[in-house]
Amino acid sequence: MAQIPTTGDPQTIKTDYSDEAITKYVEVMEEVLPIQQKAEKNAIEIIEANDLTLDRFNQILAVQQNQSDAEVSPEELASFNTAAQEIMKKNASVQEQVLQILKNEGLSPEKYRNMLVAYERDEEFQKKVDAFVLEETN
C-alpha cells in the first residue's frame, strides 16, 4: 500500500548488491515494515468508518479503474471517494517517513526500489537477504 512504486524491466533485475547495501536494505525494511503495517491497518479503519468493507472498497476501486462493471450506488461511491481521499492523505505522510528513513540510512529511493523488486522476484536474492535478517537477529 504505502510502498514506493516499483519500476523497471523485470528481465533486468539487479541482484549483485554488496553486503553493506544488503545490510542497509535490511535495516530500512525493519523500520519501514511497521510503518507500512500501521498504514494498512489505518486504511482499513478509514474504509470501515466510511461504511464499506475492504472487499467492497476494492470492488469499487476496480470499477473506478475500468476493471469491473459491478454496480455501485451513489452512496457507496461517495463513501469510497471520502475514504480514498483520507487514505491518500495518510499515505503521503507515510511516504515522507519512508523517504526520511532511506535518507537517514544512506540508501537512495531508486536503489531501495530496485532491491525491493529483486527481493520480490528473485529467489536467490531473497534467500541472501533472509540470511542477513537471520544473522542480525542472532
UniProtKB/TrEMBL annotation:
Q: Which InterPro entries match?
A: DUF4168 (IPR025433)
Q: Where is the DUF4168 domain?
A: 23-67, 68-129
The organism's superkingdom is given as Bacteria
Q: What is this protein called?
A: DUF4168 domain-containing protein
Species of provenance: Marivirga lumbricoides
